[in-house]
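User: Show me sequence and structure for the first protein, then do the same for the second.

Assistant: Starting with the first protein.
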Amino acid sequence: MLATVSEIHRYPVRPPGFEEPLFPTAESRRTIAEHLASAPWLSRGSGLPGGNGQTARRCGEPAHVLRRADGRAYLMRRCGKECRKGSLRKRRVVRVLERWREVGSWWDAELSVDRLVFRILLAGGAVVDLALERPSGEWLLMGVVD
């Protein structure tokens, strides 16, 4: 399901017989687009059925991950308006679908971002992006994937 960086780098940039410039005509643009669309690693870019793999709703709300001794993990977060004030919602983490690191604005201490992001499948079928802020260790629910 996941492609390696070396697999992506080995994929030919252009179809056989094409030289620079790649896009002199509309037909050549179409041929290049079809070539890239047939890349096996590109077709696996979003393994979420029916969705585009993008975050549909961004939250950035505080969350907590509870790990049990038996290996199960739960996402804990405050309920919205539909729950009693101060109550928590707990959902079991079924599995981690993807993970990556986001680093940005490292040159500015106030705006810098350094986090590990996990795309997880929760019991009930919801897919969410959960971030572990570094170095604070705080968890944030970044968004719900469509």
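Switching to the second protein now.
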Amino acid sequence: MPAGRYKSRSMRRVYTKLPGSRVVIHYKKRKPSKAECAVCGDALKGVPRERPYKMQTMAKTKKRPSRPYGGFLCSKCMRAKLKEKNV
């Protein structure tokens, strides 16, 4: 019987096969929702869906695109903002 904190579906069940051909259940936290564009609310491409402890160890270049407003605006909104800025 799992401990009470693992009974909730907020924990993800991962079936893991052990060397002795026994299958056990490991409980892991679920991934967070996708990062969203600040203007249109569309999902951002190039931004990983990871928990904060994994994002801390990740390189900065892997966390967001290396374009202007990368990781904050989607490419469509970024283009519109740059056009608006130049005009």
